[in-house]
Specification:
The complex is a heterodimer. Chain A is α+β, with helices and mostly antiparallel strands. Chain A is about 25% helix and about 35% strand. The two termini of chain A are about 40 Å apart.
């Protein structure tokens, strides 16, 4: 049983500070939906509003079509997984998992049976009598998921639950979370500042900055067609070239940058004279000359070999570097450090967006 | 008996100092070769001064007075000229007198009853205090804003600047037959005649509870304060109503603090003197008052000492039993 979640011009203010501003979106039942953004962007506020720990200042949250105004967290069909998990340290693993059933008055034997069933699901069968402190980080993680699933929520809310784990475990848990979501089939709303997590797990992503939803779309759309300079610079690596549009048509635009005139797609339909930023992904740039309006020349700052990829950093304007990530099989001769090299990209790989704030490094 | 047992007690300080000295020596020996021992670190002179000071404090201010009282309680009551004489023998007569009245040979029902009553009232006071202080402590630790908590703490602490006896008398004035509360009740027409609050021991309960309010609030506050708020929210999110959150999450977590607060309030209440003296009803006999009277009215120090130790041992036994029942270790309560 899953439920849709609708945010309707949701605004949350703390005094004079606006944490979330007019957020509107529909999350379909059974969807794995992520809110992605840097810390302080308002994504946790949205989650706490959906779970009921915060009230909207304006607008509404609807779950399964029903307005949640005035419904307290213990009566909503949601379950929240906390960033620090918040497992009960004085209860055993099985007691933790079955706590939601206990407060609903479910009998002891039935609770135990349900807990064992969930322990099976999270691959911890037979560990129900252990104390939480005896488990490893990944196991605690899975117990927190089981505890939330035990109350059969229609929507599971996850507040950066993987941030405390080490990299290897985090990557493993991504696949596991996705598998659990497919198995139980309920709506997952996932909060993260890690774009890798958002891109690998989600059906759709909302990218947030300063309380505003900048873009909603699937991972490919957000990565390939970012709507704003913030999304372009926050999701994945990107090279940004600021300048002014000198020539434009409906499809393409040419921007006068510190490296000369460079071309890119023009989805915003900018006209000549507009201030703009051209974005080119590192993996779209190769260390050879190409079309004149898609080639720049600069000194090599450093070369970093990373197995399948080699990262070449060119000295950019000011302190910024330009990075190229070249695949091993591409067969290019790697330039030496300190040498000057041309670098080019396919003009379609460039993206011209109206000037705006970039993500802070 | 060539050496009076009273003087044996004086040997104990020497033994304690010797133990300290041995501990310092052992510390030097037990660590690795690179470790500098106690005397190496502090020098012979300062090391000896430290040891002597700690030894003096422990021995003369902590151990010796109690030991002297224990010894005293095993002696008969004698006039000063006969002390140390042939009649000054070791005896358990003073302890026996608590159970059996020496003059008549009957059960000493008055003192036994006062004893049970004192313990019973102290238990009630501890429970009552817990019921009052738990919400206050929870508010201060988890839900109050910083500003309000500061004001609340000040309001809790400032009244304790007033002398205990003054506070007891003020309460007495308030609760007396012609006191403020009775005048208000009669003035409002709620009662026809005055209610005998003091005779009904309302004053005793209120006075004792109020006297030890802080002693309950702060251990509770400390215990609840360190509880991760996410735990409370997690329980709420999983569907628990507020009282189940307290039953299942907050109280189990705060158990050491609860045990600590209840233990101290119980102990202090059972040993209190001022509040029962001034606020107890005319028929109320508080055990500490009996002890006081033995020392300062009838000058029967041995019997007073024996009674005091009966109370002390009974209270400790009771507290340990309670800790056992609620599965709290003694170490946790002083965390």
């Amino acid at each position: 049983m899953s439920a849709s979640v609708e945010l309707d011009t949701l605004t949350v203010r703390f005094g004079s500070f606006t944490a979330v501003s007019r957020a509107t979106l529909d999350i379909a039942g059974g969807e794995f939906f992520s809110f992605l953004g840097p810390s302080g962007c308002g994504k946790t506020t949205i989650l706490r509003t959906v779970s009921g720990f915060l009230d909207p200042t304006e607008g509404a949250v609807r779950i399964g079509g029903q307005d949640m105004a005035g419904i307290s967290p213990n009566r909503r069909p949601t379950a929240l997984i906390f960033q620090n998990l918040a497992l009960f340290p004085l209860m055993t693993v099985a007691e933790n998992i079955a706590y939601g059933l206990r407060v609903r008055g479910v009998g002891k034997a039935e609770r135990r049976r349900k807990a064992d069933e969930l322990l099976e699901l999270i691959a911890l069968a037979g560990q129900g009598d252990k104390l939480v402190s005896e488990l490893s980080g990944g196991q605690k993680q899975r117990v927190a998921i089981a505890r939330a699933l035990a109350v059969q929520p229609k929507v599971l809310l996850l507040d950066e639950p993987l941030s405390a784990l080490d990299l290897k475990l985090r990557q493993h848990m991504r696949a596991e979370l996705r598998a659990i979501q497919r198995q139980v089939g309920i709506t997952f709303i996932y909060i993260t500042h890690d774009q890798g997590e958002a891109l690998t797990m989600s059906d759709r992503i909302a990218v947030m900055s300063d309380g505003v939803i900048e873009q909603v779309g699937d991972g490919k759309a957000v990565y390939d067609n970012p709507a704003t300079p913030f999304v372009a610079s926050f999701v994945g690596e990107n090279n940004a070239f600021a300048g002014r549009v000198v020539a434009a048509d409906a499809r393409m635009a040419v921007v006068e940058t510190a490296f000369g005139r460079l071309a890119g797609r023009n989805p915003a339909g900018l006209g000549a004279g507009a201030r703009a930023i051209l974005f080119v992904r590192p993996e779209a740039i190769v260390p050879v000359a190409g079309a004149p309006e898609a080639t720049l020349t600069s000194e090599v700052e450093s070369v970093a070999f990373e197995g399948n990829l080699t990262h070449i950093y060119l000295r950019g304007a000011g302190k910024k570097e330009i990075s190229l990530s070249v695949g091993r099989t591409a067969g290019f001769a790697m330039p030496a450090q300190g040498a000057s090299t041309p670098a080019s990209y396919a003009p379609e790989a460039g993206l011209v967006l109206p000037e705006g704030a970039l993500a802070r490094e | 008996m060539p050496v009076s047992s009273r003087f044996v007690v004086l040997l104990i300080p020497l033994a304690v100092i010797a133990v300290f000295w041995l501990m310092a020596r052992r510390e030097a020996a037990s660590r690795g070769p690179g470790h500098r021992g106690y005397f190496d670190r502090n020098g012979a002179l300062l090391g000896t001064v430290f040891l002597a000071l700690v030894g003096f404090w422990t021995v003369f201010l902590v151990v010796l007075p109690y030991l002297y009282m224990v010894v005293e309680s095993f002696h008969p009551r004698l006039i000063p000229s006969k002390r140390g004489g042939p009649e000054d023998v070791l005896t358990i007569a003073q302890y026996k007198s608590f159970f059996v009245e020496p003059s008549s040979g009957n059960w000493n029902t008055i003192h036994l009853w006062a004893f049970i009553y004192t313990i019973g009232v102290s238990v009630v006071v501890a429970a009552f205090n817990f019921a009052i202080c738990y919400p206050i402590a929870y508010y201060m630790a988890q839900s109050g804003t910083r500003q309000r908590v500061r004001v609340l703490m000040l309001l809790l602490v400032v009244p304790y600047w007033v002398n205990e006896i003054l506070r007891a008398f003020a309460l007495r004035l308030l609760l007396a037959s012609k006191g403020l509360i009775n005048q208000m009740l009669m003035g409002a027409g709620i009662t026809d005649g005055p209610i005998d609050f003091l005779g009904a021991n309302v004053g005793l309960y209120v006075g004792l509870s109020y006297a030890y309010l802080l002693i309950m609030v702060f251990p509770l506050y400390n215990a609840i304060e360190s509880l991760d708020r996410n735990q409370i929210e997690a329980a709420r999110d999983l569907g628990a109503p507020w009282w189940k959150i307290h039953r299942d999450v907050v109280i189990p977590y705060a158990k050491p603090g609860i045990a600590s607060g209840c233990t101290m309030v119980f102990m202090l209440s059972a040993g209190s003197l001022a509040a029962p003296q001034f606020l107890g009803g005319p028929r109320t006999l508080w055990f500490t008052s009996i002890v006081y009277d033995f020392f300062f009215q009838s000058f029967n120090w041995p019997r007073g000492a024996a009674y005091a130790f009966i109370l002390l041992v009974a209270c400790i036994a009771f507290v340990l039993l309670m800790l056992r029942l609620f599965k709290v270790s003694l170490g946790e309560t002083i965390r």
